[in-house]
Structure formats: structure tokens, C-alpha cells
Write a structure and sequence with these properties.
Blueprint (H helix, E strand, L loop, with lengths): L5 E6 L6 E3 L6 E3 L5 H4 L9 E6 L11 H14 L5 E5 L5 H11 E2 L5 E4 L12 H13 L1 E2 L2 E2 L4 E5 L2 E4 L4 E2 L8 E2 L7 E3 L3 E3 L14 E2 L7 E5 L6 H8 L6 E6 L9 H12 L3 E6 L12 H8 L3 E2 L5 H14 L3 H8 L10
Parallel strand pairs: 1-4, 1-5, 5-7, 7-10, 17-18, 18-19, 19-20
Antiparallel strand pairs: 2-3, 6-16, 8-9, 10-11, 11-14, 12-13, 14-15
Helix pairs in contact: 2-3, 3-8, 5-6
Length: about 350
């Protein structure tokens, strides 16, 4: 291990790694081996920085579970050599990747910070430089020899969020992410202020274990007024789907039409898992609070509590890949694995 703080920067793709060709005016990826040339401010830290770039780079719209597993394997391979890790990633699916990594990395005790930008790093008004610089600073920070934020996080526009609590909510503003059900882990101003009470610290330092099995036979059923029986049944009775995130109204409410409840009950009887998640940006599913959710509870729909849809999908893939017995799957889904739901 280097005496200086050391950070590995992993570039998967995305807007942040682009520079403008001065002749053609088109955007192209820059060479991250020369990152100090593009972002000379990093020299002031005195950190030991190394880079790893995907080849070819991956647009975030093309992210999939295989790449999440690849990222976990890269982190495992380099874990002992670095104090922290920064993953540069496109914004569109960043919350999905952060959620997945939070489940794939067991016994994590070093920071894994995902960041990106709305404007390429080569643009004059880019948000990329600040996001990158502060993400690296947070990834390197220690206190009494221990990492200050040993979690999978997203850093964007002066705020650090727990990754599996985060959603992208703006395609045009620099503050593109929010975490309505969990407070920021840190906020950057003149100084970086850490919310220590909200950060998870491991009770014991154990060897990092990565999980490499994800089952993507999952789907989403978003409830909406006027939804037809044919549409709902097409999704609920699809033989290739093992589990569904069901996005319901408010605190977990849905139609009480007999055909709908019968379709849900039939799907569960056939072995499918249905996880109830609210469509609201903030708040929690409270099944049984109203009669419209009590019936769902009675037929075996599981509460997603205050989990995001992104984290719910990643959690289903993880649980289905880890356990084959339904009882164990249900127990895991109802437990707080890596801070994705409130206790």
C-alpha cells in the first residue's frame, strides 16, 4: 500500500469522460492515463492515482447485470492496493449500478463513489471537474486509519448520497440526483461536512466478498388508472418472469377489482414474488394502512417499504441469484441488506 492516499478511477463511459475535438467539434473519450493533464487541480492533493478504462466504453443506457458483476470483480482484484475507488459512469443508469454494487459487495470497508456529469469534462461550464475532484477527495479520506465513508455512494453537485437510496430526477439540471428517503452522507461547501450518524460503519473489518450471480428474470408492473386485464395478465403470467416490482399508488395502494386481485394471487400461487413499491418519489409502502393495500398483503404481496424502484430491481436480481428457496428469498427481501430500506 502506498503511503500517500491512493484511489483507483474506473471509467466505464458517460458524458464526464468526453472532450471536444477542436477540429470537428464532436465529442470523444479522453485518455484517462493522462487525467492530470485534463484535471491539473488533482495534483494539489498529492494522491497516488491510477486509472482503469473500459474498452470499449459503455453508454449507461447499455448497462446490464454482466457489467455490474464485472465492476465487482475489478474492485475485488484491486481492493487491497487502494484506499478508495471512484467509478465514472453515465447518469441515466447510475442509480441502478450503485444499487447493484451495494448488494454485490459484502463486507465492504472502503469507499466506492460513483459520479459523472451533465456536461463533458472538456466543456468550459462542465460540472464534471468538481464532481470528479470531490469524489476522489472523499474516496481518499480517512480518520484514525479508517475510511470516512465505507459505502457505495453517488456524488453529484455537492452532495454525497447512499447509492441504493438515490434516483435520477433531472435530465437538465446539475443537481440531477436526489435521495428523498435518506439524508445525504456528506455535503461539500467550503469544507466537506460528513453526516456521520447516517453513514454505515462495519462493526468488524472482514475480507471483501463479492457475489457474482444475478438473475435478471424480473420486471416492473406499474399500476395506472384504466389498466386493462390483458395488459396486467401479460406481465403477471409471463412464464419467464420470476419476480416483479409492482409500483403502486401512495402508501402501497392498488385496485381492488376482483380480476386484478385474482391475477395477482394466481401469479403468487405460481411461485412469483411481487414486491410492492410506491410510485411516489418520497415515502414508504405501508401495507394494511388502507383497505386497498390490505387485500394485497392478504394474498402474499411483499412490502418494499421505502426502497427505490432502482434498488428494488437490483435487490430482486441479487436475491434470486443468491437463494433458490422461496422462504429464504422472502426473508432476504424483507430484511435490510445494505441500507436500502429503513429499519
Amino acid at each position: 500500500m502506498n503511503q500517500r492516499p491512493s484511489v483507483l478511477i474506473i471509467y466505464t463511459g458517460g458524458t464526464i469522460g468526453m472532450v471536444e475535438d477542436p477540429v470537428r467539434g464532436t465529442l470523444r473519450p479522453f485518455d484517462f492515463d493522462h487525467i492530470l493533464k485534463q484535471v491539473p487541480e488533482l495534483k494539489a492533493f498529492g494522491y497516488h492515482l491510477e486509472t482503469f478504462s473500459f474498452n470499449p466504453i459503455v453508454d449507461s443506457s447499455n448497462m446490464d447485470p454482466k457489467i455490474w458483476i464485472q465492476l465487482a470483480e475489478i474492485l475485488k482484484e484491486h481492493y487491497d492496493r487502494f484506499d478508495g475507488f471512484v467509478i465514472l459512469h453515465g447518469t441515466d443508469t447510475m442509480a441502478y449500478t450503485a444499487s447493484a454494487l451495494s448488494f454485490l459487495l459484502e463486507n465492504q470497508y472502503k469507499p466506492v463513489i460513483l459520479t459523472g456529469s451533465q456536461l463533458p469534462i472538456g466543456k468550459i461550464r462542465t460540472d464534471g471537474k468538481e464532481n470528479l475532484i470531490t469524489a476522489i477527495e472523499i474516496a481518499a479520506k480517512k480518520q484514525n486509519g479508517m475510511a470516512l465513508v465505507p459505502e457505495v455512494c453517488i456524488y453529484f453537485e455537492y452532495r454525497l448520497f447512499r447509492g441504493n437510496r438515490t434516483s435520477k430526477y433531472s435530465a437538465e439540471h446539475f443537481n440531477a440526483f436526489h435521495s428523498p428517503n435518506y439524508p445525504p452522507l456528506a455535503e461539500a461547501g467550503i469544507e466537506i461536512k460528513f453526516n456521520y450518524q447516517s453513514i454505515h460503519y462495519p462493526a468488524l473489518i472482514k475480507d471483501l466478498v463479492i457475489h457474482t450471480q444475478l438473475d435478471n428474470r424480473v420486471g416492473i408492473l406499474k399500476i395506472f388508472p384504466g389498466m386493462s386485464a390483458e395488459y396486467a395478465q401479460c406481465i403477471l403470467h409471463n412464464p419467464d418472469i420470476k419476480a416483479l416490482v409492482m409500483e403502486t399508488y401512495g402508501a402501497g395502494n392498488a385496485s381492488t377489482s376482483p380480476w386484478f386481485l385474482e391475477a395477482i394471487e394466481h401469479a403468487i400461487d405460481q411461485g412469483k414474488i411481487i414486491l410492492n413499491v410506491t410510485q411516489c418519489s418520497a415515502g414508504s409502502v405501508q401495507m394494511g394502512r388502507y383497505d386497498t393495500s390490505l387485500k394485497l398483503l392478504d394474498i402474499g404481496v411483499l412490502s418494499g417499504h421505502d426502497i427505490t424502484s432502482e434498488a428494488a430491481l437490483a435487490k430482486l436480481m441479487f436475491v434470486l441469484g443468491k437463494e433458490t428457496e422461496r422462504q429464504k428469498q422472502v426473508a432476504l427481501l424483507q430484511s435490510n441488506i445494505s441500507g436500502e430500506i429503513s429499519s
